[in-house]
Design goal:
This protein has 149 residues and is an alpha+beta fold. The protein is built from five helices and four strands. A hairpin with a 2-residue loop joins strand 2 and strand 3 (53-62). The termini are far apart.
Length: 149
């Protein structure tokens, strides 16, 4: 189990150091800002939609290793997905990081399973889910910044 945790930690640190899709989308259809006052994480999520499909997704901002890695991996997982698929994936991810996901769901989450250990540290759940809540706000067209509080 220690080897698996080390691997998960390596994946999170690698995404933190070299986040994927870390850029602005100048012609974004939707964007939202999110803030976690507990640790100061702050992200903007950008979306370019083609009908109901997420054609492009990116983010910018600052945050801890968990929040930045989560945002990076979220953008990779959701590109090309529909709104409905994105919402379902967020629900599964939220279940995972809060400790409510069945073991079979970890397999369905693929690379996002690296966040399974977050459930052991409840204060870190907000770090892991900030980008996802911000995505949800962007999809809903909310103009005000969202907060994890």
């Amino acid at each position: 189990m220690s080897d698996l945790r080390d691997l998960y930690q390596d994946v999170i640190l690698e995404h933190c150091k070299a986040p994927r899709n870390y850029r602005e989308i100048p012609a974004a259809d939707h964007k939202a800002e999110g803030f976690n006052p507990l640790c100061g994480d702050r992200f903007t999520v950008y979306l370019a939609l083609d009908g109901d499909v997420i054609r492009d997704i990116s983010f910018q901002g600052t945050g801890c290793a968990i929040s930045k890695a989560s945002a990076s991996m979220m953008t990779q997982m959701l590109k090309g997905k529909t709104r409905e698929e994105a919402e379902k994936l967020f629900g599964r991810f939220h279940d995972l990081v809060t400790g409510h996901a069945p073991a079979s769901e970890e397999v369905e989450l693929g690379k996002l399973a690296v966040f399974s250990g977050v459930s052991e540290f409840p204060v870190r759940v907000k770090c892991a889910t900030l980008a996802w809540h911000t995505l949800q706000a962007a999809l809903e067209g909310k103009q005000e910044a969202i907060s994890t509080e």
